[in-house]
Amino acid sequence: MNKYTNIFSVELLSTMLLYNNKITKDATTEEVYSIFDKWLEKNKVFRKELGTLKEEEVKEYIHIIKSELDLCKGKSDVFFPFDSIKIYLKNYIRTIQPKDKSKFDMALETIKETNNTKKLTPLSFSDFMAREDKKEYYIKNMFAKGTINMVFSPPASMKSFVSYYMGLCMATGTPFLNQKTKKVNVCYFDWENPLSDIQNRVKGICDGMNLDQSKIDNFFFFPKQPTLLTVTSYDSYVLDELKDQLINFIKDNDIKVIFFDTLRRLGNFDENDSKAINTIKSELFDPLINECEVCVIFLHHTSKEGKNYRGSVDIEGILDTSFSVEKKIKDDIINLKIKNQKRRNNELELLSAVVEIENIGYEDEDGEMLEYIETVKFSRSEEKEEVNEDTGYSNYRTYFIENLKIGTKYKNKDFIEIIETNFGIKKVTANKIIKWLVGINVLKDFGQNKNKYYILNPIHATKDEEIQLKELDIHFKELFTKNEAVEIELLKGKFEEKYYSLIVADWSKRGWVNPAKGGYLIITEQFKLENLELETTSEEVSLT
What we know:
This protein is an alpha/beta fold and 544 residues long.
């Protein structure tokens, strides 16, 4: 038995080894100490640092480890790496070094020496402009070398399917939904899915792409790996040993794209913890990019509302691009929309796809009928990227009418910013939408500088009150396709009380509304019967 083994109790060592699946619960004391002794033999620096501690310091160090293990108890998704005791020791030594003047002076000298080797290297304007650092895309106008990217969606919305398809397209140089790709080596960390599910999905996607699996030798998998990030009560850090192994693997295999599925499974951290998010960037993503020039793509979940990603706002801050995946099933056809939610350059705005999945039934050894995926085929939908005036522009018309205040003056650049921010539309297309809205009297240009300033004018586009009421009727019907109940005060503010009263009086005569129920306007069954094309929900949505 190694002399350093005596510092750790067999209970403590057993707990750490169990967390790493190195032993079973019925392991003997001899087996526990034997494994630990072999580990100590490989970690000379750890033995040396441990030998510098005094007896009281050793007790305090062991107490820290026990406390951290206690925090992990009962959390099945928490992985306590055996090597982390080295990290705890380094952190602890840092806290006690100032007490020892000689150690502190040595550390200070090391810092000075390190700092002296760093130099600022500015570039002159001419040198800077002479550089030819062109953006190298691996999927055209989507994912590029040296970037951090996110793909997010609600659970069970096929983001893993989409990501595996992306990876296979890049690994084989196959266009991704008609977007050109560059053939590169790919690796994929999957902490979310069982190995059998991963195999089944990837096989189905390969068959849907007509790929010969035996010829794909540049796509690597890391299923159910140790977590890379550890968060304690006082610090968060990426495990250096695992990070170094990953960097060496990427270099040895010339990996250009790496997927992490999902962000949450990188470690035992709170997604709202900005410090942990920035640790992931500075200690994992940045080293991977700086040393290997990889493209990082991580998967993530939406919040409960399903509209935005989950967690700290710092997540968006570390990104170059992010794409949301929306899934809708109609008549057994899976339709996906891959929308760009953040971009730094001229990345793609929207991709629409149809996914065809064919399942095969089989009987297991117990006689139970089960299914597995035979083929998964992705194809770009025929829907145009730039929405046309006959169909797509109605979305912008509805948004402007429901969200912008009637009669308020706006500059052209304000409208462009509104369209770009809410829909991710390019400036050229935004200007086309504005002109179209002017043409249908949703916006009205005024003053000497036409096409520069607009006034929002969806109802007062004409002085004919009958036409105005018809327009209002359309607005009300659009509104109640989304709501069965809308607050009366909000309606009065949105449509002005005079016109609100006229339209409600008309709808009441038809038996379409109950005009006052707890301050809400309620649609009736009669309204639904006479407007069968409208699909209503029971949500009460604010107009503000």
